């Protein structure tokens, strides 16, 4: 028997069935007309924002990194809740443009921006988080050609990391940002070129669950930003302090203590140096805002036994849930939170493997899980499906195609 | 410095540039109008089939598993070279239908076939490789409703595995096929139901490079098929012996010795028991037929240094090359064969990391590779991109979208 990850807060039952947004899972499947289906809960997203705002200093602004989930209705909802949006490609710029969001509150990070992406962003008034001196030079040249003053922030590759983070993006050689020691010179160049210097972006890692690690990282980010500002003899208009706030996916994971994080930030904000005292201060979150609000629903197509093990074969799989299958950024596969949605309150009585419909042994949704007895036709829920699910999975694999998505 | 995988045979240079199908890489990029771009070589695919046919017994038929690469022009080409096609979903059935291929030479495996997929396949005269007794029952019922006699083969989960294979699909509890010991009873049930019994499908693993392992596996497959036929008191019309023929991806990998495999098969075919002497005998290959014929071309957008390391940032990445990035079915990341296509004959002079344009540390195409000095604008080639590339990667990730594909 292998344990399952913890089911996020806020999911109750109606008539024994998993409820999302006040209706049973089967209701949404009926409305969508088919499985597999991602259901995102408006109420869970709003609740998450409310909890976060309550815990954080009033001064702190919250940006949404749309890469976590750019499904149109989710993006539209979040754009009414977030202070700004962060994009990572020209494609994402078009998605944001379609929502009507104020593009001056959008910033664009990413180490491989093409000239046409820089051009579109500069024309739109989007702030570029510059990833290299070359990119700065290209952007200045494109701004010149367009007759538009580019808005430029500098993405810093700091000399520290976010401890215990799922993905480290600072500390040592990285393709992201500009090594801290070279940043002051670049700031001077931007100012000398007459560009609109918007500040710094310091993103050190993602998916940390330790408040201590996040507090330590945020303190270092503020110190680093101050040091760079002093060296460049300027103040920082905006500071994107990065994200890193994780959510529990796996057995034993505990939620991040955002109250502790918020209190530490409040203290630091009370004693900011001159270089930062007038700054707009941001955090940039993706997964933390929407990850736990999404549920992936898939239907059991077959129930079979093989050499003593039970397999529940679903009509979904890794083509929509690459990370849950254990094939994206993880070395050892562990179970996500998974449940039989149509028997949500039933007692677990057997050990079963939940697999996808793909003809590959990689396509696993839960290994040796303790579950209620499920039959063909039952619905399986994979939780924590609100971020890096639909868009971060190979939906065309084996000719399957994308899942349905709905915000409810 | 980390070694790169071996570049497949058949790729020469023109004016110092990598040539594919008799033209330099930059020619195809110009024709496509953009990077990233998958270029598949018609000549390499035809050559591979010719070598395989020459090495294998004349009696052996070769099926193509379209999941490896279902890009329309590739599928059309391969459908003129292969004896049959194997599909894994209703979506793939529609792709094959579009080529005009004779659907009676198509078989459909996959553990999670939906009722509507079974219906479409039965109506089309496709052979079902049954994955469970339940599926057999559903198919018989659907055939009855349609008034069509279903063509049915049984996929066997054998009690042995393909040694050294990248992915094991036999030997122990598996979601694929029916445990060998239960197969004779199911064959009887199919015959008793008046269905068209087409034989057995025994697929034990993929991506093996040891001829000895493949020879051992094929011998066991023939023995297993015979044993099951005797127990079911029938002969086997068709036997799909599976695939498992691997290609070299990583440093130190050596090509599979297909001459040795073919000779061993010739010997076995000379002494087949009655149950198999009249059978059509197949192997089912995907990756082996098209994998080495494909090259992924991406352009360098930035060249940057970070704490002493050099990064070549491309406009491609894991959204098209998930497996090459080390994030699909591999535990330890190793380098695929990668080269600077636009300086294919230049001497390596530096150590560089080739990364994609995505804002994640997972997006790596080559780590600490020994390469010629490359600049912004140069083209990078990732080899072995003909199978499980475009369709097995999350192309929508970060709003990037799919790459171009062309058969040349």
How does this model look, in words?
2 copies of one chain form a homodimer. With 408 residues, chain A is α/β, with parallel strands linked by helices. Chain A has 2 domains: 13-40 and 293-407, Lyase, Ornithine Decarboxylase, Chain A, domain 1; 70-285, TIM Barrel (Alpha-Beta Barrel), CATH 3.20.20.10. Chain A is built from 11 helices and 22 strands. In chain A, strands 4, 16, 17, 18, 19, 20, 21 and 22 form an 8-stranded mixed sheet that branches. In chain A, helix 7 crosses helix 8 (211-232) and helix 8 (211-232) packs parallel to helix 9. The longest helix of chain A has 22 residues, at 211-232. The model of chain A has no long low-confidence stretch (mean pLDDT 96). At the A-B interface, helix 4, helix 6, strand 10, strand 16 and strand 17 of A face helix 4, helix 6, strand 10, strand 16 and strand 17 of B.
Core attributes:
elongated, homodimer, Lyase, Ornithine Decarboxylase, Chain A, domain 1, eight-stranded parallel β-barrel, alpha/beta
Brief sketch in words of this structure:
The structure is a homodimer of 408-residue chains. The first copy, chain A, is built from eleven helices and 22 strands.
Per-chain topology:
Two copies of one chain form a homodimer.
Chain A: E1 13-14, E2 17-20, E3 23-24, H1 25-32, E4 37-40, H2 42-55, E5 61-65, H3 72-81, E6 84-87, H4 90-99, E7 106-108, H5 115-124, E8 127-130, H6 133-146, E9 151-157, E10 167-168, E11 178-179, H7 183-192, E12 196-202, E13 205-206, H8 211-232, E14 238-240, H9 258-270, H10 274-277, E15 280-285, H11 287-290, E16 294-306, E17 309-314, E18 338-340, E19 350-355, E20 364-371, E21 379-382, E22 404-407
Parallel strand pairs in A: 4-22, 5-6, 5-15, 6-7, 7-8, 8-9, 9-11, 9-12, 12-14, 14-15, 17-19
Antiparallel strand pairs in A: 1-2, 2-3, 4-16, 10-13, 16-17, 16-21, 18-21, 19-20
Helix pairs in contact in A: 2-3, 5-6, 7-8, 8-9
């Amino acid at each position: 028997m292998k344990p399952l990850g913890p089911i996020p807060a806020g999911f109750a039952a109606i008539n024994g069935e998993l409820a999302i947004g006040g209706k049973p899972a089967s209701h949404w499947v009926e409305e969508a007309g088919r499985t597999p289906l991602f259901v995102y809960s408006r109420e869970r997203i709003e609740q998450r924002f409310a909890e976060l705002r309550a815990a954080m200093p009033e001064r702190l602004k919250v940006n949404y990194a749309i890469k976590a989930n750019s499904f149109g209705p989710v993006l539209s909802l979040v754009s009414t809740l977030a202070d700004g949006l962060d994009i990572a490609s020209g494609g994402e710029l078009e998605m944001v443009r379609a929502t009507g969001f104020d593009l001056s509150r959008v910033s664009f990070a990413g180490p491989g921006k093409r000239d046409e992406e820089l051009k579109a962003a500069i024309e739109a008034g989007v702030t570029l988080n510059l990833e290299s001196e070359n990119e700065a030079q290209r952007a200045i040249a494109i701004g010149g050609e367009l007759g538009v003053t580019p808005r430029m922030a500098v993405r810093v590759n700091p000399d520290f990391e976010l401890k215990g983070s799922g993905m480290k993006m600072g500390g040592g050689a990285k393709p992201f940002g500009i090594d801290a020691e070279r940043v002051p010179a670049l700031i001077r160049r931007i100012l000398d070129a007459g560009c609109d210097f918007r500040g710094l972006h310091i993103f050190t890692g993602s998916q940390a669950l330790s408040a201590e690690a996040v507090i330590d990282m945020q303190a270092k980010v503020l110190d680093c930003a101050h040091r760079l500002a002093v060296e460049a003899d300027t103040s920082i208009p905006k500071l994107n302090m990065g994200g890193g706030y994780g959510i529990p996916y796996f057995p034993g994971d505990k939620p991040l203590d955002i109250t502790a994080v918020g209190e530490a930030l409040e203290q630091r904000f009370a004693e900011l140096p001159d270089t930062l005292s007038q700054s707009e201060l941001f955090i940039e979150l993706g997964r933390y805002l929407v990850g736990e609000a999404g549920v992936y629903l898939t239907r059991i197509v077959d129930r079979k036994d093989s050499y003593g093990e039970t397999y529940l074969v679903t009509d979904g799989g890794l083509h929509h849930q690459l990370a849950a299958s254990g094939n994206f950024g993880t070395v050892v596969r562990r179970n996500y939170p998974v449940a039989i949605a149509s028997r949500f309150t039933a007692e677990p009585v057997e050990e079963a493997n939940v697999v996808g419909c793909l003809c590959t042994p990689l396509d696993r949704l839960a290994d040796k899980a303790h579950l209620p007895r499920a039959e063909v036709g039952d619905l399986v829920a994979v939780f924590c499906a609100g971020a890096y699910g639909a868009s971060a999975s190979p939906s065309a694999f084996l000719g399957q195609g994308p899942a349905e998505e709905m915000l409810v």
